[in-house]
Amino acid sequence: MPPEALPPELVLQPVRTGLPQAWRRALVLLAATLAALLVAYASDWAAMAGQWWNASTYNHILLVPPILAWLVLQRWPELQRLAPSGWWPGLILFALAQLVWVVGAFAGFSLLRQAGAVAMVGAAVLALLGPRVGAGLTFPLAYMVFLVPFGDELVPLLQMVTAALTIALVHLSGIPAAIDGVFIQTPAGLFEVAEACSGVKFLIAMIALGVLVGHVCFRQWRRRAAFLAACIVVPVLANGVRAWGTVYVAQFVGAERAGGIDHLIYGWVFFGVVIALVLALGWRFFDRAPGDPLLDADRLLASPALVRLAALRLGDGALIAGLVALVVAGQGWAFAADRLEASLPRQIHLPEVPGWHRADYRPALWWQPRATGADHRLLGRFADGQGNAVDVFVALYAGQSEGREAGGFGEGALVPDSGWAWQGHGPALPDARSERLLGRGEVGRLAITYYRTGPLLTGSNGRLKLANIADRLRLRARPTMTLILSAEDRSGAPATRQVTAFTRAIGPVGPWMDRIAAGR
């Protein structure tokens, strides 16, 4: 449908004398709505801004807001030709974004809360400006996903990938070495592929760059996909080479000096080299001219699908009332769920275990799991007459909320900055998470983690979150419990054997945990 065939109120011709009247009203309303959302979800936006500023993994996000502004400005001359209008399906999208936030609040999962807060901004733009303007802003609205600090979930996988690449290159360079999880032993010393060495910060930043460059510099989707793939693969491979270089140099100058050189190169040089390499690889395949417009208003005005969608209008007053009602309902629901508290006994005890007795807790290196916000905590050691000793940690929560999540970051067996490092996965066990830890590069420990809520017994943080969400959606109060069984590797007594002997003695783990939670 050509523009001249459209109703006059749906087409705005370029205005030489200033901003069109319809846009003035729409932008004022949009600015007021976005300001209100920032206030209503201030804690989530403040948490995100704190991560952007303080966490090196997310420092690149500080560039995303100006990039979004630039993307909108590039489209502004064409956007002015489109008439903004209220759109009631935008309320449905806003409700879905609000649901994401509510689920995140119910699970104590900040990533979901923050994703919901960002998605609500995009949904509000669609609701207040309509589908045509929303179509013109498709990429900037989608690019807002990079405001959400995500990527830490990839750290363990990237540690293992980097360790595998490093040991392969170390062997190829003729250096004798052995690998155990993320630890590599060489003649120059023991090296750990720590979280900071996983390369996650550069990978996430490169993905954000790859998406932006793919949109601005390419027209063909195959070229965009190939460039984005390079932005994923090259940083991972380069990080493996960097880690190998540290190990290789250490064989000649010592581990301490090599580590200092690595930090300098990694922080100031490495990322710049990777960016230059990827851009150089993609440069000759760029197929969008610098002056090509990023938006064609005529195409949007002539789109039959957008004509039908634009007919689903709603007045500004009704839209604002709908947005306010959704915010109040979502926050009220979360407020009520936050105050759910299950009944707990005044005191809990570790039960007697046949063939085992309580022993003094004297670990070779101090180990104490973290359970922030738990209502009850127990840490004790059991020993038998055959040289086995198992440490038992219990945390019992009356409820789950922000700041007291059984499976939250930094909670459980591996406490950040405690002297213990994640070494790798332990033996596979049903309904449990099995991890190997290494303390000060010397003491090995196996930690088996179980979560219990209602009838669920699992070692999966994800399954625990889903169960907690289901309870809070129904405003049903249930206690949540963490059980960690752990043992140190000792000469002649591997940790796996000790923990296996203890679990046989206590019988089914779920009922044993229930006995503790009941105070029996």
Explain what you see.
It is a single chain. The chain folds into three domains: 19-150 and 303-338, no CATH class; 152-283, no CATH class; 357-517, no CATH class. The protein contains 17 helices and eleven strands. It has helices spanning 21-40, 42-54, 64-79, 89-107, 110-129, 131-136, 138-143, 155-172, 200-217, 221-253, 255-283, 297-302, 304-310, 316-338, 461-473, 495-506, 509-517; strands spanning 178-180, 183-186, 189-192, 357-359, 376-383, 389-397, 420-425, 433-439, 443-453, 456-458, 480-488. The strands form two sheets. Strands 4, 5, 6, 7, 8, 9, 10 and 11 form an eight-stranded antiparallel sheet that branches. Strands 1-2-3 form a three-stranded antiparallel sheet, covered by helices on one side. A hairpin with a 2-residue loop joins strand 9 (443-453) and strand 10. The longest helix is centred in the middle third of the chain and has 33 residues, at 221-253. Residues 1-17 have low confidence and may be disordered.
Which structural class do the helices and strands define? alpha+beta
**Helix and strand element order:** HHHHHHHHEEEHHHHHHEEEEEEEHEHH
Number of strands: 11
Give the DSSP E fraction (strand runs of 2 or more residues): 5-15%
How would you state the average pLDDT, rounded? 89
Q: Radius of gyration in whole Å, from Cα? A: 28 Å
Q: State the domain count.
A: 3
Distance between the termini: 75 Å
- Helix content, binned percent: 40-55%
Largest sheet: 8 strands, antiparallel
The total count of helices amounts to 17
Low-confidence stretches: 1-17
Question: What sort of overall outline do the alpha carbons produce when their principal axes are compared?
Answer: flat
Membrane topology: Multi-pass membrane protein
Enzyme class: hydrolase
Organism: Novosphingobium piscinae
InterPro entries: EpsH-like, Exo/Archaeosortase_dom, Exosortase, Exosortase-1, Methanolan_biosynth_EpsI
